[in-house]
Every structure is written in C-alpha cells, then in structure tokens.
Amino acid sequence: xxxSTLIAGGVALALxxxxxxxxxxxxxxxRTTVGVVPATVEALSIAVSxxxxxxxxxxxxxxxVTGGTLATVMVKDGEQVAKDAxxxxxxxxxxxxxxxxxxxxxAAAKAAVTAARAQQKLVEDKYSIRLEKQAAAxxxxxxxxxxxxxxxxxxxxxxxxxxxxxxxxxxxxxxxPDGTEPGAGVNPAxxxxxxxxxxxxxxxxxxxxxxxxxxxxxxxxxIVLDSAPSTPFTGKVTSVRTTPITTATGGIxxxxxxxxxxxxxxxxxxxxxxxxxxxxxxxxxxxVPIESVITAGADRYVFVVRTDGVAHRTAVTIGAETGxxxxxxxxxxxxxxxxxxxxxxxxxxxxxxxx
Length: 355
Known about the structure:
By secondary structure, the protein is an alpha+beta fold. Helices cover about 25% and strands about 40% of the residues. The strands form four sheets. A six-stranded antiparallel barrel has the order 3-10-14-12-11-15. The protein has a five-stranded mixed beta sheet with strand order 1-22-18-17-16, with no helix packed on it. β16 and β17 (about 300-305) form a beta hairpin.
C-alpha cells in the first residue's frame, strides 16, 4: 500500500473519531428545556360542581278546605295576583246549611245539659240510692260532652264556610289547571291552582352522590346560567334534600337548593345552568399546579429544579385538590421551583434548562 493512501486513511479515521466524540459530548451535556413555577402559599377553595335549574323560592299549592263544587274562578292562568286576592269561590249553600245544623245541634246539646243537671238535683234532693245518683251524674257528663262536640262541629262548619272564598297566601303568579272551572267538583286532596312568588328565585342543583357528603347549608356558591354564561351569580346553600333522584344519565343525585339574587338580570323559572359549591376553604395552603404532580402507583412526586440546574424527583404528600391546583402537605417549601411543562419526560438528576 502506498504511503499516501495510509496517511489519507488515518486522517479519515481521525475525523470519524473526532466527530463521534463530539456527538457523545453533545449528548452528555444536552439539557431538556422545562417550564417551572414556584410553590405558592395561597387561599385554596375546594368546590363541587353540579347542574340544575332556576326554581321559585316560594310557591304554594292551593287546596280547598272541604269538598264541594266550584262556583266561580276569578283569575286566569299566568295572572299576577296580590296577597289575599280572591282566586275562586265554592258553592257555599251546603256550607251555610252545615252551619245552621251545627248551631241547632249545639243548642239541643246545651238544653240537654240543663235538663240533666235539673234531674241530678232532683235525685240528690229526694233519693239517697247511690246507683240513681251515679246515673244522674253520668247523664250530666254525657250532655256536657255533647256540648263540647257541638261547639267543635260549629267552629269547623264556620271555618269551612269562611274558606269558601279562596285567597292568595302571598303575591305572585297563579297557575290554573284546565280542570279548575265553575261547576267542577273539588276535594282537599287535589290543588285548585298554584301561586308562585316570582320576586325571589332559587337554583336547585343536582349534586352527585359521590359529592353530597361534603355539602351543607350555609356554604357559598357561584351560579352560571346557560342564558348568561359571562354573568355569574353569588348564592348560598339553604337546604340539602336527603331523598335521592335519578338523573337523565341514570346516576344518583341529591337536590341542593341555593338562594341567589338575580339583581337586574332577566332570570326566568326553568332556566338551566351550573353551580360551583364551595365545600372547603383553606386560607394558607402551600400549592403547586396540578400538572406538576405525577402519580406512579401509590406514590406521588414532583420535580424540583434547584440552583444546580438539576431536576430532583421529590416525593410529596398531597392534601386538597382542585382542577388546577394541588395542596402540598409534605415534600416542598414555598418558593421551590417545580417543573410544569415537560415534567413527565424527566428522570431524577437530569440537567435541565429553565424556559
């Protein structure tokens, strides 16, 4: 082989080795670029989300006090009525007759008492037989009981007569079913109509069974209606029902009533929306972004980048969580820089470049 060929081959080999060594050096010193944020002490609110609809804060089904026949219906469906406004009247002729009969029965019972007492006095004056005296006393007692019964019956008859005129318990909008019309028969078990107070509204949220144990009265809530997604309303939980309902998707939920003030907004009964119920507030929670926390089986950890430019895998104990933040109970301190973007690609001790 010629000497020039050997020299040329040696130069080529040297170039290859040099290039390979440079690539290896580049790999050894390459740094992954990551995003970091400091662990922060802040107020953390834990909320439960639920969908629902706007409902009247107050409504009342109007039932007749007694059975009978409707004489008049004085309002129309959807009509606004004032408190104590007349809504309907029952045919009061049978009720007046009932009052007259009750008065006669009471008068007869009082006369029976007078007669029984006179007989008792006669027996006590003329006879000393114990059985006769006892019988006279029992007759007086029986007559007095009849008077009590008669007074109760008369009072009930007068109440039913007075209730023949059906009035609104409060101001609101009245809903009148098709069957509520003059001449229709009525009974106390069936409502004649419904009065809805539209001056105040509630939001009834269907809270999932997995969340309901955290909800209680007095908790603050934020409501967003589908008709006005950019206008949240603040409210407060006023009641939590313990009777479950089945949702449209077949799940189990519990109705939670939230009172709120719509202010000047046009809010109508039946409007749909969602509520965020604040079930827990932590004033001084040490938090990190939820995406910083990595779960591996039962272990949870974050990567902390210190001044050495190295990502250190750090085990953490997590407390409360929201959709964006996680409370760290053990593992990091306020100000520690935890990796957000790129955390899932790191290994412990890896050198990184902070973006």
